[in-house]
Design goal:
Layout: E1 7-15, E2 18-25, E3 33-42, H1 45-51, E4 67-75, E5 88-91, E6 94-95, H2 101-104, E7 115-116, E8 128-132, E9 136-138, H3 145-148, H4 151-164, E10 171-175, H5 179-190, E11 195-199, H6 203-212, E12 215-217, E13 235-240, H7 245-254, E14 255-263, H8 275-280, E15 284-287, H9 293-304, E16 314-318, H10 322-331, E17 338-342
Parallel strand pairs: 10-11, 10-13, 11-12, 13-14, 14-15, 16-17
Antiparallel strand pairs: 1-2, 3-4, 3-8, 3-17, 4-5, 5-9, 6-7
Helix pairs in contact: 4-5, 4-9
Length: 346
């Protein structure tokens, strides 16, 4: 820890709609750990829920932040360290045990002992963050720190598309034009789909989806002329990227018999759903939580190859303005898909 201060600046969640810049201790890396100097950290929809006090995983006081990039500041003890001080990196923030059946079978995101940086563990809305070396990935020089921080949310979209096993001819409905919905749109386009609709009540966000290549609408019935001119369900698959009872029902009612629905939004914990309808039409209903290590690695490859991009609709602000950025995303986001917080040198 030579040449590092004992204290660092951090944006601390202290209660519903309360975030303040504080000085906290700089963590010390142990065996197999890295101390990362944070460069950029995105604001996630789940963190907006935590900021409002609606997320049981995020309890104050807490340093949030799990979509981030940075440079290695200190390497903890370990055999043949892969990383050196100064290396540019991004990090899979899901910390799993790596010993259980789910972890051994490549599903570390389903580990019963998993923890998330920025939820159960201090996150990246700070000058430094402590991470496991095994969760860390080199960030290619041609990828900016801002672009690299897209890897984590894009991995969620890759995971959704993988669960749906999409084919180029499939008609896909995405309900919700927030970051995950927009990343899912880009992932589906990357998988070769040409018939994709995005549904939302936010006209500014729908403009982004349209510019990315989707057919857009504020009401499901308005999509009928663009897909199938009949009274039958329009889509082969649907993704709920919101998490409300109304959006979950919209997805189920929009797909054909034998169609697939993925629920990824977490806005409401419980919903009343038409289960008998699902049974009689053999709908395939799936939850999508986060991503596997394989999904994260593929997302980083696609980001590196510039197959995903939300930069034109991304706002960049200093960490010190983080509280105001949270409020903006909740109250008046405008035509902004993402806000990235940059951590300046203290």
């Amino acid at each position: 820890m030579r040449n590092l201060r004992e204290k660092m600046k951090a944006l601390v969640y202290e209660g519903p709609r309360i975030m303040n810049m504080r000085e906290v201790e700089v963590p010390v890396p142990g065996k197999g750990e890295l101390l990362i100097k944070v460069e950029a950290a995105g604001i996630c929809g789940s963190e907006l829920g935590g900021y409002l006090g609606h997320n049981s995983l995020r309890k104050p006081p807490l340093v949030m932040g799990h979509e981030f990039t940075g440079t290695v500041a200190v390497v903890g003890e370990g055999k043949r360290p892969i990383f050196r001080a100064g290396d540019r990196v991004t990090v899979n923030p899901l910390v799993s045990c790596m010993h259980c059946d789910r972890c051994r079978e490549g599903e570390a995101h389903l580990c019963s002992g998993r923890k998330l940086l920025g939820a159960g563990i201090p996150g990246a809305y700070a000058e430094y963050v402590l991470v496991p070396a095994r969760n860390t990935y080199p960030l290619p020089d041609e990828v900016s720190f801002i672009e690299g921080a897209f890897t984590e949310p894009f991995a969620c979209a890759i995971h959704v598309c993988r669960l749906l096993n999409l084919k180029p001819q499939d008609r896909l409905l995405i309900v919700g034009a927030g970051p995950i919905g927009l990343f899912t749109l880009q992932a589906a386009l990357g998988y070769g789909l040409h018939h994709i609709a995005v549904l939302d009540i936010n006209e500014a966000r729908l403009e982004i989806a349209k510019e990315l290549g989707a057919v857009t609408a504020t009401r499901l019935e308005n999509l009928r002329a663009d897909f199938v001119n009949s009274e039958q369900p329009l889509f082969d698959a649907a993704v709920d990227a919101v998490g409300m009872t109304v959006t979950r029902n919209q997805c189920m009612n929009a797909v054909r018999a034998g169609g697939k629905v993925v629920f990824s939004g977490l806005h409401e914990a419980d919903s009343s759903l038409p289960i008998n309808y699902a049974i009689r039409n053999e709908l395939i209903l799936m939850g999508a939580f986060a991503y596997s290590p394989e999904d994260f690695e593929l997302a980083l490859q696609w980001v590196t190859r510039q197959r995903v991009n939300l930069l034109p609709w991304t706002e960049i602000a200093p960490l010190s303005e983080g509280a105001a950025c949270f409020a903006k995303l909740l109250d008046h986001p405008g035509k902004v898909a993402k806000i990235m917080l940059q951590v300046a040198d203290g």
